[in-house]
Each structure stands twice: as structure tokens, then as C-alpha cells.
Amino acid sequence: MKQACPALFGAEEDGAAKSWLLRESPLLAALSESQGNAYERLLAESGRNGENGEKTAGGDGALAGEENAAGSEQDAAGAGASEGQGNSFAAGTGAQGNPAGQESAAGNQLGAGKEDAGTPENGSQDAAGTDMTAAANAAAPPGTIGEKISEKAAEPAFILEKLADYDYLMKNFYSVHPTTTAGRDVMNAEKFLSMDFSIDKEADGPQILIYHTHSQEEFSDFSENPEATIVGVGTYLAGLLEEKGYEVIHDTSVYDLRDGKLDRSQAYTYALDGITGILQKYPSIEVVLDVHRDGVAEGTHLVTEVNGKPTAQIMFFNGMSQTPDGPIEYLPNPNRDANLGFSFQLQLKAAEQFPGFTRRIYLKGLRYNEHVRARAVLIEVGAQTNTYAEAKNAMEPLAEILDAVLGGG
Predict the structure, then answer these.
(1) What is the mean pLDDT of residues 146-158?
(2) What predicted TM-score, i.e. pTM, was given to this entire model?
(3) Handedness of CA 256, 260, 262, 264 (dihedral sign)
(4) What is each CA distance from 337 to 211, 240, 324, in whole angstroms?
(5) Which of 3.40.630.40, 3.30.390.10, 1.10.579.10, 1.10.730.10 is the CATH number of 20-406?
(6) d(C-alpha 4, C-alpha 191), whole Å
(7) Max Cα-Cα span within the chain
(8) What residues does 378 pair with on adjacent strands?
(9) How many angstroms separate the CA atoms of 348 and 276, rounded?
(10) How far is CA 171 from the centre of its chain?
(11) Which of 198, 224, 279, 372 is most enclosed, with most CB atoms within 10 A?
(12) How far apart are CA 198 and CA 45, in angstroms?
């Protein structure tokens, strides 16, 4: 097990702390010593992607679906912040807040008013579709509408100590939705990097569960290929992980159709019931992946190149179980810090191995069933403008970074 560093980031120039971090985190050691420029390219690209095309509240993916019980109160607060209050949501947890999240969240407010108020029983869901109207196109920076998102030239080498800077961390790694906050007391790089997410491949029983709260999400070529759905992408990921020695359960249950019609009003509630049964049947499962497809402006194409293949960019997503007014008591998540640490380590590993592959980690107010395991994360794979091949190609680097983090690398 990794040991926490008692004085990490306590001073600007703390050689002992830096040595500890490099020793305890081979991932960061590799970044610091050999992948600095590649990582800065990721940060440069993230700065563009975070302002463009991220589904806020009205798409087919995770951001459209909220959870159960009293969702209307939280969503009203989120919509108000987006429509009338500007960035006041970023006051944060206490006085420290998350001011750095304001910039990244500003570009994500476009659809916040589309959230359905819901009911006390069903929570807040929105099945309005994926279009974000012309406003999304207008908000996107030059070079991202109607063309491939490309890498920028390398910036100065990545500096390890920058992770100690809360403002730097939030600006470069996260997009914060108006429905939540991410204060200094929560967003702590030292804490995230000291967590050990390694698992034993040889343990009896399955170790990984893949499922899809929104199984009906399709890719751009679905009309020509009925397999071009997020479930097909999950099947491919499961196979890749099995080739690496993991035992994987792929839950292909449909949680977002009712009476043959698309209905996401209770999808997260139904999904929780389904995966709870699976986890009870297979208590050996330590990793839970809810794989989605994002929804963006029609002119946006979230694609990069990995190993010579056109590859959909992915985005890790964390539910904070917290609004600007404080914790959501009816949606407790004792695994929230671990969930945040897991996505952060995956993000860094992606930066090391596949710069430009990931968008910034997205933080939103509700829980999204990530409380079920410490190693739980929601993953957005491309968007409706990506082809099925691009989405499948993304599973290859994703399997690599999952294997690296779960292997303790």
C-alpha cells in the first residue's frame, strides 16, 4: 500500500516531498522525466475542449440523466446559476470555493436550463435530445467546429509542483458544472495520488463490471450499422480487458426504454437496481464502469489519432453528491474521494501514454451511482458525431490505461 506523504506540497520547493511523490507514483515520475511536453499538449488541448461541445444537461449521455428523489430542487439551482447568476455557483465549499472552475464551467452552461424539474419520486431527467442549438456553435473556439480537433505545439515541460496549485489543478484538469462545487478541501492532488487502485487479476471471480445506464446511445453511422451503439463499444472494451487477464461482466440490460419508448426519467434508478443485483451476486467485482456516449453540437467532432487510428476522445465524469448549498444528504457517497482519485489517476496515465486522448474530467452535482465501488467511474466515449469505428478505437487506449492503473503502475 502507498504511504501518504505528511508534508507534500507544504512548501513550494520541497525536495523530500517531490522525491516521495516520484517514488510513490511511477506514473508521475514518467510524466515528469519523459512526458512533460506531451502532457502540456494535453493541457493545451483540454483548454480548448472544455469550452466546446461538452454536453451539459440535455443530451443522450450521463449529463442528461439525473438521479432519484427531490431532484427538482437541485436542478432548479443549477439552471438558475446557468441562466441568471453567471458564475456565482463557483463560490465553492466555504470561502475557498472553486474559482478556477468558473472558467471551465462557463462554457458548459449552455444547456443547464434544459434540465427537467422531475418529480420527488423520479428525480430529474431530460430526454430532450442532444442538440445544443446555435449557441453551442457560437461558443466553441475557432478550429473546433466542423473540423478535427488537432494537437497544438508543445508547451514548456510539465512541472510536477503545479499540481499543488489548486487553481492550476482545476483550470487544467476539470470542468465544473453549475450544479456543484469542487473546493480546496475536496480537490487535493496529494490525496488522489496517494491512493492505491491496484487489484489482483488472479482473484477468484470477476473483477470488472461494465454497464450502460443509457444503452440506446448511438453513433453517427447507426443507420448503416445497427451495432453502432454504446453497448457494442462496451462489448469491445470487455473483450480487450479479458485479453489482459481480467474477468469481466458486461451488463447489456436496457435501463432507458419503457414500453418501447426512450425514457430516461428513471434510468439511473433502474440501473442502480440492476447493478446492485450483479454486485451482490459477484462480490469480487472491484471496478464499475458506466460507459456512455456524449452529445455535442452537430459541427463538433471529438476525434484525435492514437496509434495511427482515428480515435474518439473520451471524458471521465464524476458525480459530487453536492450542490453549491452543500452535500446532498439523500445521495450519500462514501466513495466520492476514491472515485475522484481513480478518475484523476486514469487522466494522468492517459496523458502519459496517449496525450490528447482525454478531455477534462467533468464534475456534476448528483451521484450517478458511483457510490457502489471505490473504483467506479462514468466514461463518455466520443459523441453522436463520432463513427462507431472511432468509438471502438478509443477502447484500445482506454483498456491500456485501465490496466496500468489497476496494475499499480
Answers:
(1) 33
(2) 0.71
(3) negative
(4) 22, 28, 18
(5) 3.40.630.40
(6) 8
(7) 62
(8) 290, 317
(9) 30
(10) 15
(11) 372
(12) 29
